[in-house]
Design goal:
Layout (H helix, E strand, L loop, with lengths): L8 E5 L3 H12 L3 E3 L8 E6 L2 E8 L2 H4 L9 E6 L2 H10 L5 E4 L5 E7 L5 E7 L1
Parallel strand pairs: 1-4, 5-8
Antiparallel strand pairs: 2-3, 3-4, 6-7, 7-8
């Protein structure tokens, strides 16, 4: 019974950071905020198509400094329209890095969300 695929990842932060993180994933990456169960804590579920791939949880400010840290480097998204995406990042004055995968028809853009999480965007070329 192996894992079948990535379901979602979760980001925890206090206000106002969680709001900036939400805006980044919606306004920059194009995810859409959607249905979220009626948990007893505030948050957002962000969707790519029908899948809620990013879960955001708002924590009290005092908990933000006690959040766990680890070795996660980045989260990767499959994207389309490389030139349009790069133009969007430029129009938003976002810092990013271009890359290509050696021996594969794949172009990449790397950037950080407002919480400092690494984001990899993959485009077939």
């Amino acid at each position: 019974m192996p894992a079948l695929g990535l379901n979602h990842y979760n980001i925890r932060a206090g206000q106002p950071l969680i709001g900036r993180v939400r805006d980044f994933y919606v306004d920059v990456l194009g995810l859409q905020e959607g249905w979220r169960p009626a948990f007893d804590f505030p948050g957002h579920w962000l969707y790519a198509g029908d899948a809620a791939v990013v879960h955001l949880v708002e924590t009290p400010q005092e908990q933000t400094s006690a959040l766990p840290s680890g070795t996660l480097d980045h989260i990767a998204f499959t994207c389309t329209e490389f030139d349009a995406f790069e133009a969007r990042l430029n129009s938003l004055c976002m810092q990013y890095r271009r890359a290509a995968v050696p021996g594969a028809p794949l172009k990449q853009l790397f950037l950080k969300d407002p919480a400092g999480n690494g984001i990899e965007l993959n485009f077939a070329s």
